[in-house]
Amino acid sequence: MDRQIILSVLVVAVLGFLGVLFLMPASIEDGPDRLPWRVSQDVAGRTQVFGFTIGETTLTEVRALFGEDGKVNLFQDPTQAEPFGVEAFFDQIHLQRLRADFVITLDVDQATLAAMYERGLRISQVGSGSRKIKLDPADVEILSSRPIRSISYLPKARLDNDLIEQRFGTPELRLTEPETDIVHWLYPERGMGIGRSPNGTVVIQYVDPDDFDRLLKPLQGAVPSEETPTPPET
Fold first, then answer.
1. Which residue, among 51, 25, 56, has the nearest Cα to 40 in the 3D structure?
2. Largest CB tally within 10 Å, which of 31, 177, 187, 204?
3. How many structural domains is the chain composed of?
4. What is the pTM of this model?
5. In this structure, is residue 224 part of a structural domain?
6. 159 is in which domain, residue-wise?
7. Please, are residues 54 and 45 in contact by the beta-carbon 8 Å criterion?
8. Residue 234 located in a structural domain
9. pLDDT by residue (tens digit) across 111-128?
């Protein structure tokens, strides 16, 4: 679902503030640094951002911080090696004066998700042969104890290249999707990828560095961008 998230969000223009870093009135100011560019890894190599630890923080803990349950759905894409994925969507979350939507992908094995698919209450098509399944409430409750596998952060304002580099640093690689002109800023060692459309809307994705292929696989048709930094000569 990662590629579908990027395309569905970036191709559609999102109203936002120009020239500022999506400043909004504060609603969650609880002490920890929850800014999107504050990304680190713990001693086990797990990515930490927003006060969450990928592979450890559970959906219950995310809900407690955001103050809402989110919308949990199962997705099936038969073209993928792992055809099932489950996501929790949180709309209009404010963290330390920044407003964004969140898509939280949970770490659940395929056999468990296949069983939940069979118990699903409703199936709808979402394009490209993929399906969205409304889950049985009992299964949603089971998922509340599962840890995060990835985070997609969808800010409401548009960011220019200079601001991205100022806040997030120079990427190890930039790739462009020829059919959309979406540029991907990739930071494998930090477990982070930023997709930016020509109009400045962005999607920021976070995974563990060991799981970075999750972000790279959908970009096999992308080409190096002109802005890609040249490695220093040795």
1. 51
2. 204
3. 1
4. 0.84
5. no
6. 2-219
7. no
8. no
9. 999 999 999 999 999 877
